[in-house]
Amino acid sequence: MNNYDKYKYKQIENFIYERIRSGTYAVDSLLPTHHWFCEKFEVSRTTVNKAFEALVENGFIEKIQGSGCYVRTPKLSQQSIYMSSFSEEYSKKGYQVSTKLIFYTVIRIKDFQDNRLSKKLGALPKDYVHYFERVRFGNDKPFAVQYSYITKDIIPNLPLSCLKSSIYSFIENNLNLVIGDGSSQLSVILPPDDVALLLNIPKTEPVVYISHISRLSNSVVFEYSDSFIKYDHFSILYSNKR
Q: How many structural domains compose the chain?
């Protein structure tokens, strides 16, 4: 896929996502056909398929053979209009928040040998990402382990100092970029061995697992992260409108 096609498929993906978020494409409604998107964006069916696959992967739509693509509500999903960082959220709760950087490197996406990562970031396997592992502390006690991937094309440089504090503050205050919304998928699982060790908990103690995508205000994805949070340090406020 060339750069033009890459841009076009992301444009289609963002077009659909924004209409799902706004309610223009309601849950359980049938999306326009592939042919409609091909004509509207002047692209091939392959490019439209790429956009649809990304939305299916994130749980926003479902393909039904012989019927079409339908809007779905992602399972165990929390979507927020305003994004805030771990540091901001836990500071509001009265915690003295600190971060320990465990590992950092710049690496090609293909080196992870995980096809999902390329789809999540809307990037090519040959593209580079900042990859880093961090432990978050509240009042000197570990409460979260986070594995993050940030696209280098969008955020070329990340000083180590910001990895130990708030990346979002660095992006907005130093790079003058505006962080937009994000989407998260949540589940409760038993922790991987390395996570249990870093959180100092038994392997039998459940943790909240969150896979998260962050976007800039122009809807471009710049970050994907996997977070493991102690269950007694996590809560969610959910409101529903009829």
A: 2
Specify the pLDDT at position 231.
81
Place of tokens 């771990």: 86
Q: Specify the pLDDT at position 65.
A: 87
Q: Where are the alpha helices (DSSP H) in 3-85?
A: 3-22, 34-41, 45-57
Range of the domain at 23: 3-71
Residue-wise pLDDT for 21-60, tens only, equals: 778 888 889 999 999 999 998 899 999 998 898 888 777 8
3-state secondary structure 62-127: EEECCCEEEECCCCCEEEECCCCCHHHHHHHCCCCEEEEEEEEEEEEHHHHCCHHHHHHHCCCCCC
pLDDT digits (tens, 9 = 90+) for 161-220: 989 888 888 998 899 999 888 888 888 899 999 999 999 999 999 999 999 999 998 889
Question: Do 120 and 90 share a structural domain?
Answer: yes
Residues 6+ positions from 133 with CB-CB distance below 8 Å: 101, 102, 103, 104, 145, 146, 147, 148
| 87 and 96 Cβ atoms separated by less than 8 Å | no
Together in a domain, 107 and 189: yes
Which of 71, 105, 130 is where one domain is finished?
Answer: 71
Does 47 lie in the same domain as 104?
A: no
Residue 177 identity: L
